[in-house]
DNA sequence: ACAATATTCCAAAGAACATTGGAGGAGCTG
DNA sequence: CAGCTCCTCCAATGTTCTTTGGAATATTGT
């Protein structure tokens, strides 16, 4: 008990998880997987990675125990190993945000200026229940299918301009997306207000709601 | 907005924190710092590191924003950058525990067999308030001084055998230490029961209590 | 100003990691 | 079983990380 070698072995176990979190691309993969299971090729495209590079990163996440795989015919679906992994990822981001000044800068550069009105989930749910607003999921359709806020309407951002008619003009639209660092809802609200609609975005997104244990409705496959 | 370069920069920020968590030795330093501020040389000894190696790791943690420094004369005191860092660390450990089978193995190898009775904090506090038990802090004295459970008595593990007289024989002793992966309380309870005392250990330790927001009493300097 | 103490910086060597393209494997379909 | 798709494995490259001992720096006390 209490000897060096054993202590080192124990901390090496913890570090294996840390190492897996130590690459931007792997974190991006986790971010995507937090929205639902995906295949390797799909992830490679979404994360702008070569296929073998993506596979290698996924192997690394798998070895660390952060993701799980399921084979479906010729395809392999990767998913997060559990809600606690999503929580760890969210935790990591918030520590970066709080203790690394550059993070805020990078966030702004990616999401654009803070020119959009926002609401937190609690209020969003209250308004939605009262029927005052339309809750809009602007993520790609498969992510909506994998799980979304109950009652939310799905119009992926890249189809939004063409499908504006589907949104009632007399109600405010509340857009949400993957999470606090996802650009989709920001862009959606800009697009909507540019078209004269009343719109705001949810402060958080599916990642944070999942971690908070909010009900997320999966669509029947 | 939404372009690759900006997204990569944002995730690089997150990954900087992840990278800092990707070394066993750095995690060990965080573990120590979670008990209170310490100097470089002190940390090097405690973590079994060369002085320059230790300094390099601390620089890395500092660059990642996970620790802070304070100069006191010729000495530099490192400390955690915030409670959220402790929470992140605890989170990392619990993910490793839950998703990496080897972790449990390594834990047992380090802490020894599960031959000691345990109590959770809630019950510990109830018993302590009723005066049924002695709450014993077996960490090194400086860590006790930096913060401990209100009402706890300090006898560092390596002095315990010589100071048994200080503990009342008619009351059960509840020993606690740094956290769920710290060997001190395990060893203390084994030592106490070997001397015929009634003893058990707290399931968690100061790290977890801090994260949970429990009152931790700092000794006036 | 000088010596003493505590820490950081530097350079070098070895280890681990990321990325690539292409070969190999597993599973489906005809 | 041949051809297809999707993914993993492999080998080679360049890069980053760790560890070391010794030199440089900052602060204090004489």
Automatic annotation (TrEMBL), chains A, B:
Keyword Ion transport: no
Pfam families with a match to the protein in the record: HTH_5 (PF01022), Rhodanese (PF00581)
Domain HTH arsR-type: 6-100
Matches recorded under PROSITE patterns: HTH_ARSR_2, RHODANESE_1, RHODANESE_3
GO molecular function: DNA binding; DNA-binding transcription factor activity; thiosulfate-cyanide sulfurtransferase activity
Keywords: DNA-binding, Transcription, Transcription regulation
CDD domains for the chain: HTH_ARSR, RHOD
Keyword Transcription: yes
Domain Rhodanese: 129-218
Coiled coil location: none
PANTHER family the UniProt entry points to: ARSENICAL RESISTANCE OPERON REPRESSOR ARSR-RELATED, HTH-TYPE TRANSCRIPTIONAL REGULATOR KMTR
Annotated protein name in UniProt: Transcriptional regulator, ArsR family
Organism: Micromonospora halophytica
């Amino acid at each position: 008990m209490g000897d060096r070698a054993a202590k080192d072995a124990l901390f090496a176990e913890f570090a294996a998880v840390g190492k897996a979190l130590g690459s931007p691309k792997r974190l991006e993969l986790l971010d995507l997987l937090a929205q639902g299971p995906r295949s390797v090729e799909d992830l490679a495209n979404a994360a702008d990675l070569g296929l073998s590079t993506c596979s290698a990163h996924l192997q690394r996440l798998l070895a660390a125990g952060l993701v799980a795989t399921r084979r479906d015919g010729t395809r392999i679906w990767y998913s997060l190993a559990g809600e606690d992994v999503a929580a760890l990822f969210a935790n990591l981001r918030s520590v970066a945000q709080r203790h690394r000044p550059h993070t805020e800068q990078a966030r702004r550069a990616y999401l654009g200026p803070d020119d959009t009105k926002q609401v937190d989930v609690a209020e969003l749910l209250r308004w939605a229940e009262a029927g005052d607003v339309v809750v809009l999921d602007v993520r790609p359709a498969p992510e909506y299918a994998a799980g979304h806020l109950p009652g939310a309407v799905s119009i992926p951002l890249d189809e939004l301009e063409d499908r504006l008619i589907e949104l009632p003009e007399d109600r405010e639209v509340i857009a949400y997306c993957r999470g606090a660092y996802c650009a989709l809802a920001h862009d959606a609200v800009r697009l909507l207000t540019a078209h004269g609609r009343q719109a705001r975005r949810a402060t958080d997104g599916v990642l944070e709601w999942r971690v908070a244990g909010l009900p997320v409705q999966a669509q029947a496959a």
